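Working notes for the structural subgroup meeting. M.R. asked for a predicted model of this chain before we commit to crystallization trials. I am recording the input and output together here so anyone reviewing the notebook later can reproduce the run.

Input as submitted:
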Amino acid sequence: MSRLGDLLRTERMRRNMTLKQVAKLGGVSEGYLKDVEAGTRIIADDQARRILKKMGLQEHNEAGFTLDDIAATVDLQTASPKPAPEAAPVRKHAPETEKVYETEDKSVSGGVWLDALTSVLRRVPVYNVVMKEVDHHLLPILDGRIEGAAPDKVFYLSAPDDSMRGFRIMREDQCLIVPSNSPIDGTIMLVEYAGHRCLRKVKKLDAMNVLLQSYDREYAGETLALPDVSFIGRAVRVEFSL
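Returned structure, recorded in token form:
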């Protein structure tokens, strides 16, 4: 079964809708929809998205997940719904052009998959250096934490330049940042000083001074008093695209 087909079937069953009702809603044949749910036919992403939205699954929701996120994780076993009967009650003597189904829970904004996703995954934003969101990643939540921090506090930073290439961080590499407002010796941190926000390797010199190190084509270091530096967080991992 394909992920989109599985998602279509899950949302249809959760709403106690028949194949015929969903097929009519999406403007496709009942046989086509049945094959899609069984995984024997491929459905285009935009067509699946249109059908899901007509069924009541919102493109964006309060948890921050999109339909792409949901479809990408639709094989989560913990979210498997209980089977529901195919037949759904209809009103007698309804006009031919009138819709004869209703969404059971109009407050639902994502369905059963979101309930599972929000408990095991977090949508972590990717920010540029001015803290504007440019992308996101889904990260697992372990014991209620991500890398030991509250899930809503971690974020990725897209490296703005090659000033840290000597420490194996290149421009547009994405660094996962865990909040820390004090210097951590020997780590790479996101810092702000003199109106400039950047990644630097930190070396504590004494109780009042710190050395901020960079390494583009050659090594550079700046000695600053602690009150002159704001420490935002520690980089715990780096991801890059091939």
